[in-house]
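Customer ticket, subject: "Can you confirm the structure for Cytochrome b5 heme-binding domain-containing protein?"

Message body: Hello, I'm evaluating your service for our small team and ran a test protein. I'd like someone to confirm that this is what the system normally returns, since I don't have a reference to compare against.
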Amino acid sequence: MGWPGVGNLAGYFFSRSQPGSDLTLSDSTSPTPPDFKSESPLPSSDAHPAEGSREHAVGSPNGPAEETDLESAQSTPKASASNAPPPVLAVPTLSLNDDASTENDNVARTEIEAKDQAHPQAPTTTSLSSGASNATSQSTARGPLPVPEPSTFRIATPNTLPSMPPPPIPRPRQTPLPNRAPPTLQPPRSGASSLRTPPSAAASLRAPVTSSGLSSSTLAPTTVKKQASRKVILEPGYSPLDWAARTSNPNNGLRGAGLPPGLVRVTPSLLKMQNGRKGRDAWTSYQGKVYNISPYAPYHPGGKGELLRGAGKDSAQLFAEIHPWVNWEGILGECLVGILVSEHDPQAENVLDAMD
Ligand code: HEM
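Agent reply: Thanks for trying us out. I re-ran your input and got the following:
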């Protein structure tokens, strides 16, 4: 409230003043601004806790009244207003906020500040928010009281509500507890664990214990029949390395004698005739190509008889059934005779006549 308002109020009281109150009029209309400014922003209840009338003078619009004449001002109608019921005097309960000198408050402040130092971020915000809301309501009740600092906010809460404990300071949830490893990294205990497979699954994944291979699970590895090796003992000089050395020779003659230099067009009937009998080489077809397998027979790890099972016909099925991992072309590339054509291929040559 500005000075004009004070003047109006003084005029109001002057108009209602009783005779003999001229002194009050003269005093109230001549306040000294320095005194008002020095008293208004600071709560005076602490300095004069027993002078309820003075507190009212500070909180009321008559606050600018001359302090030195308060005794005489009580004799004015304003003094009768100072006899207002205790609620008016209860307004300076704000003194509790300002008076932070009790031991309990000091202890609470110390604890809160200590926790704030330990958790400088989240707890400070919480304390400020609660204290700010409280101080805002109080400052509204006071009127022109200055806004205290955040530290004052924190202290105001326990003062205003002494019976209430200070607000709990939340702990940051992200902070891991010391000396406690993440649960996901802990090894599964022997007891209950979510990582353990259910008994049924464990049983299904369990390998057969006995040599009999009996297992009730469909996922258990079935017993693989360990077949006896059918490899034969090769004659000296017929090892895979010897075959490799022979195929590396450009003039190895592995295709067979009497063949034209280019690929021969072989009909199924011709292939059938080349069965390795009667002094003829054994030919076999594989993926549309015809190979002379007679030179490879003494080098075949499975024996000559096994290899000649495919003589005069296609060997793809037998080959795939026994050893699909074997590189056919890498071993028999130099033995390539020609390509397999239809029986009535017009370009099929009479290879037998040529070989004769
Ligand atoms: C055409 C019919 C063929 C039959 C019936 C046959 C059969 C066999 C058999 C029974 C074995 C012994 C498997 C074992 O017990 O370890 C064997 C091994 C072998 N055969 Fe044949 N084979 C044939 C064709 C061929 C051909 C055309 C080649 C070469 C291109 C070849 C290359 C081999 C090799 C390299 C092994 C040794 C495999 C190993 O060490 O595991 N076989 N073959």
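A couple of notes from the result: Strands lie at 264-266, 283-286, 289-292, 313-314, 336-340. The chain has a mean pLDDT of 66. Feel free to reply with more questions.
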